[in-house]
């Protein structure tokens, strides 16, 4: 588990929010936040189509990594509501995701895997041990207030304090691409969604008429 001294790099108040680590008592509320905000509204999830089963499978993966102590929430101080969550995991050669049953969840993680395979940071850079910013989510009531950027700023300082050397994130919009570039991340790969194939390797997952030039996934990497 991270040290108390390292947690000081991320925990504290900012504007009307309090940033703090996710504790076991928070797990249920965090998973509900992810289901109702990230899985409903993240661009890729919206294209795939929200269902309770999809959200439940995504949350199986989130729940797998919460005990690592690397994930954080932002609470809205006046109401006590979860305004945002940053889910983070420590990726090693032994990292394995839990088994999933929902087709859309499997496709979601296949997309993440496909764009990470294109990046191939282990062979290209000799990196097989890194932090992965798995997802950042904000509640609808608190969007546009800079929470995601503040999660990046605080998390980077936290990870440096913990001695990690590299951070990787898969981004899925021009906005998140700009946020990572601003903080020194470098693009490693790109997968346009019209090139994303189903499990047979030849059938497009998405219809071209449903896509825009902004529908893509990128792997961004930063040396800490």
UniProtKB/TrEMBL annotation:
Matching Gene3D superfamilies: 3.40.630.30
Gene Ontology MF terms in the entry: N-acetyltransferase activity
Protein name: Dopamine N-acetyltransferase
Taxonomic source organism: Orchesella cincta
